[in-house]
Design a protein that fits this description.
The protein is an alpha+beta fold and about 325 residues long. The chain has three domains: about 90 residues, no CATH class; about 70 residues; about 140 residues, 2-Layer Sandwich (Heat Shock Protein 90). The chain has eight helices and seven strands; from the N terminus they run H-H-H-H-H-H-E-E-H-E-E-H-E-E-E. It has a five-stranded mixed β-sheet, with helices on one face. A two-stranded antiparallel sheet has the order 2-7. The structure holds adenosine-5'-triphosphate and magnesium ion.
Length: about 325
């Protein structure tokens, strides 16, 4: 909200307006100014100069009235502006809480899908595998077609099972629920290290004093996930470092991800859903999201959320 000019200015103006006439009066009285003016004006009576002071007085009164009107109008405008600002702020809060609810629903939905996949599909795959093992054992000779088909079903089942496990862990990382944010990130980094041996990954995490509440942990986790995907897709980096830091005053948890890749001119990027989604998630929690990058100078993102401790907390470092 723009600040109102400091109080010292109007006070200074009022002092000036009060002191000027006093000073004029003292100087005028000392120099007999009006008398001299009158005597001088009488010589030019035909020009009616002696009427000038009265005309000037009316002119000053007019100016004072005009200033007073402008002052009233300004107060009215200021009031309207404040009303609009308050309405905007309320709308912003509403949007933030809506965005938070959408994110929560999304996470709940993901969790439900992960459970469904794990329970329903997992059980069915398990049953298929048991049946195929039974068929393989009952098929007798090794070279028979039934034996080969049973083996193929077992292999396929194992493959589908590992795909489902990967999907469920992406939908709802078990490590995040059970161990906490730092461990879940470390767990993911181990996978990235395996997949991308050409990149050096560094990870540091401060110890949090208590458990981080679930929405914060999930938001930071998703930011790291998307940030890491971006590094792999866009950065062409050799070194990537991820850090989780805790600031006590004010209590804030920050996640910082930086790479030494090709970077980008931030003003010109065509923002996809990734960066936008990260910002929305973090701002919905009252946090801050910042990007820093220049061509050939890497990319850095930092997400900070107020540290909140709650009943629905997930384990933290
Ligand atoms: N680590 C990075 N290094 C260099 N450029 C990056 C990096 N991360 C993001 N960018 C740039 O920012 C752009 C926007 O990223 P964002 O994640 O929003 O979208 P995206 O990755 O292109 O698509 P998606 O919606 O699938 O995430 C990218 O297209 C890329 O140009
Ligand atoms: Mg992306």
């Amino acid at each position: 909200m723009p600040s109102i000019p400091s109080a010292s200015r109007p006070v200074g103006d009022i002092l000036l307006v009060a002191l000027l006439p006093i000073a004029t009066f003292i100087i005028g009285a000392g120099t007999e100014f009006s008398e001299r003016l009158m005597t001088g004006a009488q010589r030019f009576e035909r020009l009616q100069l002696d009427e000038l002071p009265l005309a000037l007085l009316t002119f000053s009164l007019g100016l004072a009235w005009f200033a007073w009107r402008r002052w009233r109008e300004m107060l009215l405008e200021l009031g309207k502006r404040r009303e609009i600002e308050a309405a905007l702020e309320a709308k912003q809060l509403e949007l933030r809480s809506l965005s938070r609810r959408v994110t929560e629903n999304l996470e709940n939905e993901r969790r439900a899908i992960a459970h469904e996949l794990h329970d329903e599909l997992g059980q069915s795959l398990n049953a298929i595998k048991i049946e195929s093992v039974f068929i393989r054992n009952a098929s007798g000779e090794r070279g028979s077609m039934t034996h080969a088909a049973a083996l193929s079903i077992i292999r396929l089942t194992d493959h589908v099972y590992s795909v489902v496990r990967d999907m469920t862990s992406r939908l709802r990382p078990v490590a995040l629920d059970e161990l906490g944010l730092a461990e879940a990130l470390e767990h993911d980094l181990a996978k990235w290290r395996q997949r991308l041996p050409g990149i050096e990954f560094d990870f540091k995490a401060d110890k949090l004093p208590e458990r981080l509440d679930a929405p914060c942990a999930i938001a930071l986790y998703r930011v790291a996930q998307e940030g890491m995907t971006n590094v792999v897709r866009h950065a062409d980096a050799r070194n990537v470092s991820l850090a989780l830091t805790f600031h006590r005053e004010p209590a804030v948890v920050s996640l910082s991800l930086r790479d030494d890749g090709r970077g980008v001119e931030l003003r010109t990027i065509r923002s996809g859903l990734g960066l936008l989604g990260m910002r929305e998630r973090i701002e919905a929690l009252g946090g801050a999201f910042q990007l820093e990058s220049q061509p050939a100078r890497g990319f850095r993102l930092e997400a900070s959320v107020p540290f909140a401790v709650g009943a629905n907390a997930v384990g933290a470092a």
